[in-house]
Design a protein that fits this description.
Number of helices: 13
Radius of gyration: 24 Å
CATH architecture: 3-Layer(aba) Sandwich
Distance between the termini: 68 Å
Shape: globular
Structural class: alpha/beta
CATH superfamily: P-loop containing nucleotide triphosphate hydrolases
C-alpha cells in the first residue's frame, strides 16, 4: 500500500467537548477535512467537521462488536474479522481522500476508544499522526449531551471517563497537544502556535491571513453550557471525574510529568475494575432499550400499513366493496 505523503492530525475528545471548534480552527488554518462531511444541524450549526465515511466505518465496527457510540463499554477484539474489515476500509478512504494532502484532520469522538483500530493503518501507510486532545468540563459535556440526545448525566460521566482516559493512554507514543476548551475562545492564536510546536507540524495557511474567518467561526454563540468550576459538593460526588479533569488540565497547562501519568494510570485501573460491576447491568439495560425501540418501530410500521390500506380503500369503491363482502362472508367485523 502506498505511503501517505501528508500528516494526519487526530482531533480527540469526548462528544460535545469542543472538538468541532478545534477542527474548524484547523480547517481554516489549512488542514483538509475531506469531501463528504456530516451535515450541520441545530446542535452544531457550523458543522461537525467529521468525515461521513469515517463515522460510518466506526459505527459498523461498533455494531459488529455489539456496541453503539453511547455505550460506556470499550471494544475488546482488535484482531477479529470486523476489525480487519474496518482497517481495510479506513486505509482505502485515506488513500482516496488525502493522498495529496500535506496536512489533514480526522475528527470523530469515537476515535478516542478506537485508536487501537487505527494504529496499524497509520503504520502500514507510513504515517505518524499528531494528536490534539480537547478537554472540556465534564458537567458542561453532560448538560450538552442531555440537551442533544437525552442522555442521563450518569451515563455521560461514564462515557467521559472512558473516552478521555483511553485517548490519553493510547496517544502517549505520538506527538500530541492537550488543549482546554476555554483556550480556543480566549487565545486561539496561542493554541495554534502551541499545537504546531508540540506536534511538530506547520499550518499550511498563515494564521493572520485566516484570522477574520477564525474569529467569525469561534464566536461565543457556539457555547451553550458553562461550568467553569465545580459547584459545591459536586467534585466530592464525582471524585474520578474531578480528578481526571484536573489532571488533563494540568497536562494542557504544564505538560506531562511522571506523577501525572501515574495518577491517570491509577484512574484507568480503577475504572477497569469498576467496569466488571457496571458493564453487565449496562449491557442488559441497552438490550432492553434496543428491544423496546424495535417494538416501537414494529408498531409504527403496522400503523403506517393500516393507514395506507385505508387510503387505498377510500380511493377505490370497488376495492372497498370486495373487502366488505369478504369480511361479511368470514363473519368478521365490517
Amino acid at each position: 500500500m502506498a505511503a501517505l505523503a501528508g500528516r494526519p492530525l487526530l482531533v480527540l475528545g469526548m462528544h460535545r467537548s469542543g472538538t468541532s471548534s478545534f477542527v474548524g480552527l484547523a480547517a481554516r488554518l489549512g488542514a483538509e477535512l475531506g469531501s463528504d462531511l456530516l451535515d450541520a444541524n441545530e446542535f452544531n450549526p457550523r458543522g461537525y467537521g467529521e468525515h461521513r465515511g469515517v463515522v460510518e466505518i466506526h459505527d459498523r465496527f461498533l455494531a459488529a462488536e455489539g456496541l453503539r457510540w453511547d455505550a460506556p463499554r470499550r471494544p475488546e477484539r482488535w484482531g477479529g474479522e470486523a476489525a480487519q474489515r474496518a482497517r481495510a476500509e479506513l486505509a482505502g478512504l485515506l488513500a482516496r481522500e488525502f493522498a495529496a494532502a500535506t496536512l489533514f484532520a480526522l475528527k470523530d469522538p469515537r476515535l478516542c476508544r478506537l485508536l487501537p483500530l487505527w494504529a496499524p493503518v497509520f503504520a502500514d501507510l507510513g504515517a505518524r499522526p499528531a494528536c490534539v486532545l480537547v478537554v472540556r468540563h465534564p458537567l458542561e459535556v453532560a448538560a450538552s449531551l442531555e440537551r442533544r440526545d437525552g442522555i442521563e448525566p450518569a451515563r455521560s460521566h461514564l462515557l467521559y471517563l472512558e473516552h478521555m482516559l483511553a485517548a490519553e493512554r493510547e496517544t502517549r507514543g505520538w506527538p500530541r497537544s492537550v488543549v482546554a476548551y476555554d483556550e480556543l475562545f480566549a487565545d486561539w492564536r496561542g493554541v495554534a502556535k502551541r499545537v504546531a510546536a508540540e506536534c511538530g507540524l506547520r499550518w499550511p495557511r498563515d494564521p493572520e491571513a485566516a484570522a477574520p474567518e477564525i474569529e467569525a467561526f469561534l464566536s461565543g454563540d457556539l457555547r451553550h453550557h458553562r461550568a467553569a468550576e465545580w459547584p459545591p459538593g459536586e467534585a466530592a460526588r464525582f471524585p474520578w471525574l474531578a480528578e481526571l479533569h484536573e489532571e488533563l488540565l494540568a497536562l494542557a497547562r504544564r505538560g506531562p510529568a511522571p506523577e501525572r501519568t501515574q495518577a491517570l494510570d491509577r484512574l484507568g485501573a480503577s475504572l477497569t475494575a469498576a467496569a466488571a460491576l457496571y458493564e453487565p447491568e449496562l449491557a442488559a439495560a441497552d438490550a432492553r432499550a434496543a428491544s423496546d425501540a424495535a417494538e416501537r418501530r414494529r408498531v409504527a410500521e403496522e400503523a403506517r400499513k393500516a393507514e395506507r390500506k385505508r387510503d387505498r380503500l377510500a380511493d377505490s369503491p370497488w376495492l372497498w366493496l370486495r373487502t366488505f363482502l369478504r369480511r361479511r362472508l368470514r363473519g368478521g367485523p365490517v
